[in-house]
From TrEMBL:
<dbReference type="InterPro" id="IPR007219">
    <property type="entry name" value="XnlR_reg_dom"/>
</dbReference>
<dbReference type="Pfam" id="PF04082">
    <property type="entry name" value="Fungal_trans"/>
</dbReference>
<dbReference type="InterPro" id="IPR001138">
    <property type="entry name" value="Zn2Cys6_DnaBD"/>
</dbReference>
<feature type="domain" description="Zn(2)-C6 fungal-type">
    <location>
        <begin position="37"/>
        <end position="66"/>
    </location>
</feature>
<feature type="compositionally biased region" description="Basic and acidic residues">
    <location>
        <begin position="1"/>
        <end position="10"/>
    </location>
</feature>
<dbReference type="GO" id="GO:0000981">
    <property type="term" value="F:DNA-binding transcription factor activity, RNA polymerase II-specific"/>
</dbReference>
<feature type="region of interest" description="Disordered">
    <location>
        <begin position="1"/>
        <end position="31"/>
    </location>
</feature>
<protein>
    <recommendedName>
        <fullName>Zn(2)-C6 fungal-type domain-containing protein</fullName>
    </recommendedName>
</protein>
<keyword id="KW-0479">Metal-binding</keyword>
<dbReference type="GO" id="GO:0006351">
    <property type="term" value="P:DNA-templated transcription"/>
</dbReference>
<dbReference type="GO" id="GO:0008270">
    <property type="term" value="F:zinc ion binding"/>
</dbReference>
<dbReference type="InterPro" id="IPR036864">
    <property type="entry name" value="Zn2-C6_fun-type_DNA-bd_sf"/>
</dbReference>
<dbReference type="Pfam" id="PF00172">
    <property type="entry name" value="Zn_clus"/>
</dbReference>
<dbReference type="GO" id="GO:0003677">
    <property type="term" value="F:DNA binding"/>
</dbReference>
<feature type="region of interest" description="Disordered">
    <location>
        <begin position="114"/>
        <end position="165"/>
    </location>
</feature>
<dbReference type="InterPro" id="IPR050987">
    <property type="entry name" value="AtrR-like"/>
</dbReference>
<keyword id="KW-0539">Nucleus</keyword>
């Protein structure tokens, strides 16, 4: 028997001989040989024992390699030919639509690289599940006008009261309201409006604000003072810092969660320092650490001021604005790298950003958080070159970065892949780290929702357009909730006596609403179209489970918002985040009647 190739060389162990065509089929129960021989026994046409290694390879001390099993299926020839004809037709159509071969190959590669799904999950919103063809056909019903993807995925340039245009992306509440204004402006002429209603009652004033939004960023900041070093007495300062720590950090150690932010040591009072004779840069650099306390005083003064009294005038600024101006003067210009930047400066900028958020100066807060994050990168904090206190300050900056990114629909400052810093951990003389750690993990999901679900800065390939399948984001959020430690879980009635825990779950619900909101808005548009054009009010079954989940999250946020008001009854105005979560939940519940 000839075993050699035509060139006289024996086949390698990775090659195999073809199947002997003269061999007749034998039933599996009557076989005297194994079904598949190893490669060495196959090329030598000898009997293989089927072991690993087999007897022949073991005796001759050869590597025993079996072929990779290939699953075979048999289909009718007519079906195979039909599939081939379809592939040829699709290729011709693709060539006509995209004549450029390189662009065509790029799209084919991108589609081939996209995974079909992830591992199964007990959740009905597992990322492995996709929308059925029936849902797609219902979505493309002739009574609903399909919108171009670019129209759905583009943020908007909205003007502030002074006419300055600022870009707000898809996740921004102002952009969502602008979409609603556009929709209402299109359907109100078709609706029957009561003629006796005033302009405020018929919604004209609301619709006239299309393309505009309100922000305090258009107001100039208070002028900086010349002598910003004076602080209250140690006793008064300790009392104020204690109040601030209770409101925004860890409840003075009373909250089981340990709080969801850590801005620094708010229980340490600085030693009294004599004021300098002048306020030159050289003198102020020695008092730079006092900027942290002025920023803290600005926050607590703002929290103890009602919304009507929060803004002062140009001639007489409010007390919180005066404290913020002192902090700004002491911390100096963050872009001036000749001054020695420390993790203490990061904590100060973080507190200043928190104050600006409460003052509805989100663009200014965005810039302060960016400066704080870049100082962290310059100091190597993102690579772990810091102690536990610095670690918690960094993660607080990270949380604010992801929050502002979600709030304004803009890309976040640092990618998760660039961070090598461990998550917060429990440490002596520090509050528990559970709350901040869970907040960081939730903020990571927030970054995914903004960047991938809304395609603001996607790192995953999209199949199906904007937010057509928010299932992966929903699944990530549900997994986050299921893995929370007991101290962060809500009671059976859906509430908690820990304000930080309530606020954490409000953000979780807000992200659920945000992930589903494009589908929610689409359902509203279809409902309006049916009522006004087709003159029918039949409910739509498209994405029913998603819409129910969105409404349930909105209802939970309303209850949690009321609970926070009860827990913080001494505070004169709620936090900006509380107002944002409650407002978006209210909008969803108002629109619920339409769908």
């Amino acid at each position: 028997m000839q075993l050699d190739n035509s060139d006289g060389r024996r086949p390698s162990s990775t090659q195999r001989l073809p199947v002997n065509p003269r061999r007749h089929k034998v039933a599996p129960e009557q076989r005297k040989r194994v079904a598949t021989a190893c490669n060495n026994c196959n090329v030598r046409r000898v009997k293989c024992s089927g072991g690993n290694p087999c007897g022949q390879c073991s005796a001759s001390n050869r590597e025993c390699v079996y072929p990779t099993p290939v699953e075979k299926v048999s289909v009718p020839r007519t079906e195979l030919e039909e599939l081939r004809r379809k592939v040829d037709a699709y290729e011709r159509a693709l060539q006509e639509v995209i004549p450029d071969p390189s662009r065509r190959q790029e799209l084919i590669t991108q589609a081939a690289a996209t995974p079909e799904g992830l591992s199964p999950s007990p959740s009905p919103f597992s990322p492995a599940q996709s929308f059925s063809p029936e849902s797609s056909r219902r979505l493309a019903a002739p009574s609903v006008k399909a919108e171009p993807e670019d129209e759905q995925t583009t943020g908007r340039l909205l003007q502030d009261p002074d006419g300055t245009a600022r870009y707000l992306g898809e996740t921004s509440g102002a952009t969502f309201l602008d979409h609603l204004k556009e929709l209402l402006g299109a359907v109100l002429p078709l609706a029957q409006v009561e003629p006796q209603l005033s302009q405020d009652q018929d919604g004209t004033a609301f619709l006239n604000s299309l393309g505009r939004y309100y922000t305090a960023d258009s107001r100039p900041l208070v002028e900086r003072e010349e002598m910003p070093t004076s602080l209250p007495s140690n006793e008064d300062l300790a009392t104020l810092l204690c109040k601030l720590r209770y409101l925004i950090q860890d409840g003075n150690g009373e909250w089981p969660s340990g709080g969801i932010y850590w801005f620094g040591d708010l229980n340490v009072v600085p030693s009294q320092i004599a004021s300098p004779p002048s306020a030159s840069d050289a003198d102020m650099n020695e008092y730079r650490h006092l900027a942290f306390y002025h920023a803290a005083l600005a926050n607590i003064t703002r929290a103890n001021t009602s919304s009507q009294e929060v803004h002062g005038s140009a001639s007489t600024p409010s007390l919180s604005e005066a404290y913020f101006a002192r902090a700004a003067l002491l911390v100096g210009n963050p872009l001036d790298i000749t001054r020695c930047c420390t993790i203490g400066d990061v904590a100060t900028l973080c507190l200043m950003a928190a104050y600006l958020i409460e003052m509805n100066r989100r663009d200014a807060a965005y810039m302060h958080v960016a400066a704080a994050m870049h100082i962290c990168i310059m100091l190597g904090v993102h690579r772990g070159l810091v102690d536990e206190r610095g670690k918690r300050v960094f993660w607080t900056v990270y949380v604010l970065d992801r929050w502002l990114s979600c709030l304004m629909g803009r890309p976040h400052i640092i990618m998760d892949d660039a961070i090598r810093l461990q998550l917060p951990a429990d440490a002596p003389s520090m509050p528990p780290a559970a709350g901040l750690k869970a907040h960081v993990e939730l903020s990571r999901i927030s970054g995914y929702v903004v960047c991938n679900t809304y395609r603001v800065a996607p790192w995953e390939a999209s199949r199906g357009g904007l937010a057509k399948q928010p299932d992966k984001a929903i699944w990530m959020l549900q997994q986050w909730q299921l893995t929370l430690p007991p101290r962060l879980q809500l009671s059976p009635d859906g509430l908690s006596n820990d304000p930080a825990c309530c606020l954490l779950h409000m953000r979780y619900n807000m992200l659920l609403i945000l992930a589903i909101r494009p589908l929610f808005l689409g359902a509203v548009k279809r409902s309006v179209a049916r009522r006004l054009v087709v003159q029918t009010a039949e409910p739509s079954s498209t994405h029913t489970e998603h819409l129910k989940l969105c409404i349930a999250a909105a209802r939970r946020n309303i209850r949690l918002g009321r609970q926070l008001t009860t827990l913080n009854i001494s505070r004169k105005s709620p936090l900006h985040a509380e107002q944002h979560y409650s407002f978006n939940a209210t909008v969803c519940l108002i629109l619920e009647d339409l769908i």
